[in-house]
Amino acid sequence: NGTDKKPPSPSPLRFSKFFQSNMRILVTGGAGFIGSHLVDKLMENEKNEVIVVDNYFTGTKDNLKKWIGHPRFELIRHDVTETLLVEVDRIYHLACPASPIFYKYNPVKTIKTNVIGTLNMLGLAKRVGARILLTSTSEVYGDPLEHPQNESYWGNVNPIGVRSCYDEGKRVAETLMFDYHRQHGIEIRIARIFNTYGPRMNIDDGRVVSNFIAQAIRNEPLTVQLPGTQTRSFCYVSDMVDGLIRLMEGENTGPINIGNPGEFTMLELAEAVKELINPEVKISMVENTPDDPRQRKPDITKAKELLGWEPKVKLRDGLPLMEEDFRQRLGSPSKN
Ligand code: NAD
Ligand code: UDP
Ligand code: UDP
Fold first, then answer.
1. Ligand 3: which residues within 6 Å by Cβ?
2. Whole-number average pLDDT of the chain
3. Which Pfam families match (predicted)?
């Protein structure tokens, strides 16, 4: 008779759906600029529990203040170069200083964060069976000899320069991700992030968008580093977060470029900030730093095809959104 039959065990599909609807998510570097916006988005889904680990090197609790004390949220002071024991389904691994002045400040620590930190997060992913996403960078393309950059380009990186702790560190992190994937079957996702901007950027982190906006508000000259014809492509942070979540929940390992293909010279960026924020401000040409990439623009064909993603916010719309946040933090009266 059929009455003592065991109920069928859940199919792999139903099993994965169960986890997709109730997820515990670790965000390393979640007190930073991109990380805290990602946390905001993940917390919107009531089925998600979010754990942030951060050593507050460049991030701050302030970025997460609206979640502290929330029952689905946990904040842990921890350095990813040390072993971490938590039980999670997803790991967004962002911990790493991103701005040149911060990653060059202690280059050995930057390498440790990228290499040992990523190794630890992969060891954690292996132990608990979590899927892990690494926020790599367009810097893996170095001073690129192909333009725009697509994911099959291997890059032109100086292995011994002052930026190498970051560029080569992220390259090793990508290698580790693929080796854990091939050797241990870990589910990996790699995003190659291009320059991102928006509210909560560190005001004094030396990056070009934060520098120009702070300078325009303080009515100090916009410091365009020579020659001023070098280019970058700037993605607004809400678009970035959307791309990262799609990548994590999609089927593709990557690497996938996530960035806005709108390309600007630094002089054009300065002109846009001047026009939108302070038409009186001066522009001054200053010395550059070594190994500055001359051009950078993502080819986002893969993100469009595989993730159905493309950025929505244009630079001219994003800059004013960031201005308001900077005015508040600089104690400068709002324009409106
Ligand atoms: P951020 O500096 O604001 O955030 C990084 C966070 O990591 C900070 O909160 C910092 O305190 C934390 N952190 C650093 N070292 C750590 C360690 N050893 N242990 C624990 N926490 C540590 O930078 P961001 O702009 O938000 O960048 C986030 C990620 O995105 C980084 O991995 C960065 O390399 C990558 N990325 C950013 C950009 C960009 O334009 N912002 C571009 C390419 C890649
Ligand atoms: N690791 C961790 N949390 C875990 C599991 C591992 O931080 O839950 C670290 C561990 O300290 C180790 C690294 O991840 O240094 C790599 O772990 P793995 O198991 O792959 O390698 P092994 O421990 O065998 O060297
Ligand atoms: N830059 C600039 N003025 C500044 C800061 C940066 O002209 O005050 C230039 C810098 O030379 C580089 C570009 O802006 O060509 C982007 O620099 P950033 O440090 O923001 O990012 P990354 O070099 O990592 O892309």
1. 100, 195, 206-208, 211, 223-225, 230, 232, 266, 288, 292
2. 93
3. GDP_Man_Dehyd
Report the greatest alpha carbon distance in the chain.
88
Ligand 1 mean position, distance from CA 141 (Å): 18
Q: Does the structure show a pLDDT above 90 at 164?
A: yes
Q: What is the mean pLDDT of residues 312-334?
A: 94
**What is the reported pLDDT for 45?**
95
**What number is the ipTM of this complex?**
0.97
Pocket test for ligand 3, best of 213, 260, 266, 267 (most atoms within 8 A of CB): 266
3-state secondary structure the chain: CCCCCCCCCCCHHHHHHHHHHCEEEEEECCCCHHHHHHHHHHHHCCCEEEEEEECCCCCCHHHHCCCCCCCCEEEEECCCCCCCCCCCCEEEECCCCCCHHHHHHCHHHHHHHHHHHHHHHHHHHHHHCCEEEEEEEHHHHECCCCCCECCCCCCECCCCCCCHHHHHHHHHHHHHHHHHHHHHCCCEEEEEECCEECCCCCCCCCCHHHHHHHHHHHCCCEEEECCCCCEEECEEHHHHHHHHHHHHHCCCCCCEEECCCCEEEHHHHHHHHHHHHCCCCCEEEECCCCCCCCCCCECCHHHHHHHCCCCCCCHHHHHHHHHHHHHHHHCCCCCC
Which residue in 103, 166, 180, 236 is the catalytic one?
166
The pLDDT value given to residue 290: 83
Answer whether residue 200 shows pLDDT above 80: yes
| 8 pLDDT higher than 70 | no
Predicted local confidence at residue 336, as pLDDT? 61
Q: How far apart are the first and last CA of the chain?
A: 78
* 92 part of the active site: no
- pLDDT tens digits along 20-50: 568 999 999 999 999 999 999 999 999 999 9
pLDDT of residue 334: 76
